[in-house]
Structures are given as C-alpha cells and as structure tokens.
Design a protein that fits this description.
single chain, mainly alpha, two-stranded antiparallel ribbon, 5 helices
Length: 181
C-alpha cells in the first residue's frame, strides 16, 4: 500500500504542518499519459519543480557534530581568554622592568598557552575527522545494503518461490497419477 510517509514529507511552516511531495508518482503518470497521447506540447508547457530528497541521517550527523564542534570551540575561546588574562597580569606585575624581556614565569605561561592551543586544535580536528568517518561509514553501509543485501534477499525470495512452485507442481502431478491409477 502507498502510505503518506513513502511519498510525502511533513514540514513546519510558521507553525503550520505542510505536506511536500518527495516522490512525484502522480506527475510521472500524468507525463506518461501526455506522452502516450502523442503531443509533446503539453509536456513542454508544464513546469518541472526541482526534486530534492534530503539525506536526513547525514544532516543529523552533521548537526550533532556541529554542536560538539561549537562546544569545543567555545571551550577553546574560554581557555584562550583565561590564559591571556593571566599573561596580562604577569606582564603588568613586571611593568617596572623592561617590557622586551620576559621572566621565566611568563615564558612558561606563554609556552603552556601555546601547547594548550595546539592540543585543542588537535581535538577540533579529531571531531571533524569523526564526523567525516561517521558519514563515510553510513555511506558504506548504504552501499553494502543496496549492492549486496537487497539483491541477495531478492534472490532468496525468488529461490523460495521457485521451490514452492516445484513442490506444488510435484504434488499436483502425484495427485493426478494417483487418480489415474
């Protein structure tokens, strides 16, 4: 049976639920009838809407990864601010000395700041890499299903139908032979 979820996508539009066709079977039938009628004029007059079928799972993966990425970026910015504040206080404490010369404490703080910045950038790259791996993994699973599992399932169903028909045919032949005898 044709159910709404197979060909309609529900969307919220300013608080109202709107249905948008994603599988235009009606247009397909209408165009086929127009084409069979022999006139291409009507087909060329009718406008064709853009067809897009969103990859909901991929979009969901990207949204969750973006949320994680934003959280990491905010954490990075906060750590940068706090480290810069500490550097400013260290520099203001040493204001009476030469500004060009850094104390060992300032140098250590600056080095720690740079190491922390590198570590957080590495974490951000890992989050992005994880997102890419999740998307690639989903793509691989979909390809496996479409290329291997669906044809194998269809072959098994066809084999089961053939076996069922052979058994039924053999039973009918045996029944006919018993009636003749």
């Amino acid at each position: 049976m044709l159910a709404d979820y197979l060909w309609l996508q529900q969307r919220n539009f300013f608080g109202q639920r709107m249905a948008q066709a994603i599988a235009n079977n009606g247009d397909l039938v209408w165009n086929a009838l127009d084409n069979l009628a022999g006139s291409g004029d009507l087909i060329s007059v009718r406008g064709r809407a853009a067809f897009t079928r969103p990859f909901d799972r991929v979009a969901e993966l990207r949204r969750t990864a973006d949320d994680r990425l934003r959280a990491k970026e905010q954490e990075l910015e906060e750590q940068l601010r706090s480290t810069e504040e500490r550097l400013t206080t260290l520099q203001s404490a040493q204001a009476n000395e030469s500004a060009a010369i850094l104390t060992p404490a300032q140098q250590a703080e600056l080095e720690r700041f740079q190491q922390e910045k590198l570590r957080i950038r590495k974490d951000l790259r890992q989050v992005r890499l994880g997102l890419d791996q999740d998307i690639r993994s989903l793509g691989t699973r979909l390809k496996l299903i479409n290329i291997v599992l669906i044809p194998a399932l269809l072959a098994l169903v066809a084999l089961a139908i053939v076996m069922f028909r052979r058994r039924r045919h053999a039973a009918i032949v045996m029944l006919q032979q018993e009636r003749k005898a």
